[in-house]
Design a protein that fits this description.
The complex is a heterodimer of chains A (about 425) and B (about 300). Chain A has helices at about 75-85, 105-115, 140-145, 160-175, 185-190, 195-200, 210-225, 240-250, 260-265, 285-300, 315, 335-345, 350-365, and strands at about 1-10, 15-25, 30-35, 45-50, 55, 60-65, 90-95, 120-125, 150, 180, 195, 205, 230, 255-260, 305, 380-390, 410-420, 420-425, 430. With about 425 residues, chain A is an alpha/beta fold. Chain A has two domains: about 1-55 and about 375-430, Urease, subunit C, domain 1 (Roll); about 55-365, TIM Barrel (Alpha-Beta Barrel). In chain A, the strands form three sheets. In chain A, strands 1, 2, 3, 4, 5, 16, 17, 18 and 19 form a nine-stranded mixed β-sheet that branches. In chain A, helix 4 (about 160-175) packs across helix 7 and helix 7 (about 210-225) runs parallel beside helix 8. The radius of gyration of chain A is 21 Å and the shape is globular. Chain B folds into two domains: about 10-135 and about 290-310, Rossmann fold, CATH 3.40.50.1370; about 140-290, Aspartate/ornithine carbamoyltransferase (Rossmann fold, 3-Layer(aba) Sandwich), CATH 3.40.50. In chain B, helix 4 (about 115-120) links the parallel strand 3 and strand 4 (about 125-130). A five-stranded parallel β-sheet of chain B has the order 7-6-5-8-9, with helices on one face. A four-stranded parallel β-sheet of chain B has the order 2-1-3-4, with helices on both faces. With about 300 residues, chain B is of the alpha/beta class. Chain B has helices spanning about 15-35, 60-70, 90-100, 115-120, 140-150, 170-180, 240-245, 250-255, 275-280, 285-305; strands spanning about 50-55, 75-80, 105-110, 125-130, 160-165, 185-190, 205, 220, 260. The chains are: A alpha/beta (about 425), B alpha/beta (about 300). At the A-B interface, helix 6 of A face helix 4 of B.
């Protein structure tokens, strides 16, 4: 059966498209793109998207789906729903599940469960060291064979330099990128927020920027040594991005991502209420860092936006600040935040939004390209830029409500999402399998 | 609502300047009571005060307990060794449990910054922060202010050096902003390894040299090294620390003639204070401890709607 999406403003810089078009989809692929009214729909469904914006489907290359093992926080089905609600057609699941996704058997289970429970494409990353312990490399070949697309010890930096070198050399053997969480644990120690004015005021142990930047610099040096593609996760300081930019200028295969919370929040948002929804790893940095990250996202020094969606149960976050777990949910607020804070304010064009949230993650992970052209997979995100989204605990499809953005009024969000031509979101309602 | 502008004292900033002076004035009256043979007042009869101490403490808990009992409140100690927290109960659930017992005032001491706030979110009682991690210890600041004010007659315009483990000190976290608020000038003196990242946000200037301006200060406030809150040792040896940052008779001789020494206790003889320095009459440590009971009586009395009740 065919699907005709009519009258949307179609934007895709990959094919230099920014015009109102009708798009015909059959068997999961785009089969025709034409001016409004010129595309015939022989038999099938027609949707009028007048006033909406249609772009290649968004990809979030950094999410914690907590499945297997921590399903009380999130599972593949609920995470898939949250992704659809947020406008994403695909996500990359992190391996810090319970047990750790550090072998092909667990990875295959995750991939199969995803196919049976959600329309959202769930890509899986594998741990690069067994149990995320940083002591021995994993069976990356086996994992790559069942479909794992990247390797990472996300949640921890690999503390041993020689082990990181081995992991990168071994990942390169199978042509997979390494996604690096940069944190020198001796320096970050028991820090729970950025080291600086706020940590002093609140009497909290600081987690200094240097603890992140030292490991970024180390991993860049190891990238040069090993030739393995390196992607720096959730970069949080201006200096860190500048290290990556220098590496790129030197021709190294290095990329990086930024989270919406590091783009739009800073340590100044943490106050005497000790709201644990603001406890992140890496921590929210200075306001200067935040503003620089926005600028670097626009300039392309930062390649993409990824949420580090980190769901936690209410009782886990309702703890003493220093005892509460790190992280905020992100899937359902990322796109509305980017639109509200950057596109609507004129800082970021729609074209660059597509680059940073759709094309770049696919490029970094070596996933099939999705462009608005005939023959491409119909993974599409439709945006209603007028829609109001009042972020509240009740608004989420995710099982968890630990969002740092609760209480914000955002304008512009996904109204429809198509994965291989099938709706996973329709008129802002999630569509299950 | 009591006589203060706040119902909880979680940080020193919860109190206005007027609040602080009201507490210090009220403490003066209670000190007279404490000098009597019969030290008990009926003021808080029938009120329930819980000392909720999740960290080992003897002197602060005892001071609060004596203060509550002198006001005839029922004071109950709920400490870590007998508390539910050791059975895995969360602070939120413990707070709800205590709330169900209808208490009027809770004093909490806990190893984690910001934890007193959690109590206020789940209890009807007033909450006093008895020390939260490295953050604040507002009643210590109040008794220190009382000591300084009784000695000099004023706080405004004084120069105060706070020396030692600033980085891990909740005493500094409350005292420096309090002195600042009342017009004193605060200098934090320590090796860089014992300074917080931004002492300026707490209202303090910084020096790494104790000898440089020792003759300028009216108050030299010595802090203990918080060994229990430090992982890697920030000092190479006690000997070297005492050499550069310890107060001894030589250094005392360089202080202003009327300058005083203060210390929150417990002291480590031979580290921050030489034995002679600890025993000099200029060391007001025991005066501070004595004032602590009166100041805590004043705070409890004012928080629990005292004002109308009889003091004398």
């Amino acid at each position: 059966m065919a699907l005709l999406l009519k009258n949307a403003l179609c934007i895709d810089p990959a094919v230099s498209l920014n015009a109102v078009k009708d798009i015909l989809i059959r068997d999961g692929e785009i089969v025709e793109i034409g001016d409004p009214g010129t595309v015939d729909l022989p038999k099938g469904i027609s949707r009028d998207l007048e006033g909406k914006i249609l772009i290649p489907g968004l990809v979030d290359m950094h999410v914690h789906l907590r499945d297997p093992g921590l399903e009380y926080k999130e599972d593949i089905e609920s995470g898939g729903r949250a992704a659809a609600k947020g406008g994403f057609t695909a996500v990359l699941a992190m391996p810090n599940t319970k047990p750790t996704c550090d072998n092909a058997s667990i990875a295959r289970n995750m991939i199969e469960k995803a196919l049976n429970t959600t329309r959202t494409r769930i890509y899986v990353s594998g741990a690069m060291t067994a149990g995320l312990k940083g002591e021995s490399i994993t069976e990356m070949g086996d994992m790559a064979r069942v479909g794992v697309v990247a390797f990472t010890d996300d949640g921890r930096g690999v503390q041993n330099d020689a082990m990181m070198r081995l992991a990168m050399e071994y990942a390169k053997t199978f042509n997979k990128p390494v996604l690096s969480h940069c944190q020198v644990e001796d320096l970050s120690a028991k820090g729970s927020i950025n080291e600086g004015a706020t940590s002093t005021r609140l009497g909290l142990q600081g987690w200094p920027a240097a603890a992140e930047e030292i490991q970024i610099a180390r991993d860049i040096a190891l990238c040069e040594l090993t030739g393995c593609s390196l992607h720096i996760q959730h970069i949080s300081t201006a200096k860190g991005v500048e290290l990556v930019a220098q590496a790129k200028a030197n021709g190294l295969p290095v990329t990086c991502e930024v989270t919406p919370h590091h783009l739009f929040l800073s340590e100044e948002d943490i106050d005497e209420t000790y709201n644990t929804s603001f406890k992140m790893n890496p921590p929210l940095r200075t306001r200067d860092d935040m503003l620089a990250l926005q600028q670097y996202l626009v300039s392309g020094m930062i390649d993409c936006v990824a949420t580090d969606h980190a769901p936690h149960a209410p009782h886990e976050k309702a703890m003493e600040f220093e005892l509460a777990p790190f992280g905020t949910t992100g899937l359902e607020t990322a796109l509305p935040l980017l639109i509200t804070e950057m596109v609507s304010t004129g800082k970021l064009t729609w074209e660059l939004l597509v680059e940073r949230m759709a094309h770049a993650p696919r490029y970094i992970l070596g996933l099939p390209h999705v462009k608005l052209e005939v023959g491409c997979t119909a993974d599409l995100t439709v945006i209603d830029k007028q829609a109001i989204y009042d972020v509240s605990a009740e608004s989420f499809e995710s099982k968890s409500q630990n969002s740092a953005f609760i209480g914000r009024r955002l304008k512009g969000c996904a109204s429809d999402v198509y994965v291989a031509g099938y709706a996973s979101l329709e008129d802002r309602e999630v569509v299950g399998l | 609502m009591g006589a203060l502008s706040t119902e909880h004292v979680l940080t020193i900033q919860d109190l206005s300047k007027d609040d602080i002076y009201l507490i210090l004035d009220t403490a003066r009256s209670f000190k007279e009571v404490n000098d009597r043979a019969i030290k008990k007042l009926p003021t808080l009869r029938g009120r329930t005060i819980i000392n909720f101490f999740l960290e080992p403490s003897t002197r602060t808990r005892t001071s609060f307990e004596i203060a509550a009992k002198r006001l005839s409140a029922d004071a109950i100690n709920f400490s870590a060794s007998v508390s539910a927290t050791t059975k895995g109960e969360s602070l939120v659930d413990t707070a709800k449990t205590l709330d169900a017992m209808d208490c009027d005032l809770v004093i909490i001491r806990h190893a984690y910054a910001g934890s007193p706030r959690i109590l206020t979110q789940h209890m009807r009682a007033s909450v006093i922060n008895g020390g939260d991690g490295k953050h604040q210890h507002p009643t210590q600041a109040l008794l220190d202010l009382h000591t300084i004010r009784e000695h000099f007659g004023h706080i405004d315009g004084l120069k105060v050096a706070i020396v030692g483990d600033i980085a891990h000190s909740r005493v500094f976290g409350s005292l420096a902003p309090a002195l600042n608020m009342l017009g004193a000038e605060v200098t934090a003196i320590a090796p860089a390894t014992l300074l917080p990242p931004r002492p300026d946000v707490l209202g303090a200037k910084v020096s790494t040299n104790l000898d440089a301006n020792l003759g300028d200060y009216d108050v030299v406030y010595m802090l203990r090294i918080q060994k229990e809150r430090i992982e890697l040792s920030p000092i190479p040896s006690v000997r070297e620390y005492a050499t550069f940052y310890g107060l001894n008779t030589t250094r005392i001789s360089k202080m202003k003639d009327d300058a005083i020494i203060m210390h929150p206790g417990p002291i480590n003889r031979g580290v921050e204070l030489s034995s002679a320095a600890a025993d000099t009459a200029r060391n007001l440590l025991l005066y501070q401890v004595n004032a602590g009971v009166a100041v805590r009586m004043a705070l409890m009395y004012l928080l629990l709607g005292g004002q109308d009740g009889p003091i004398a």
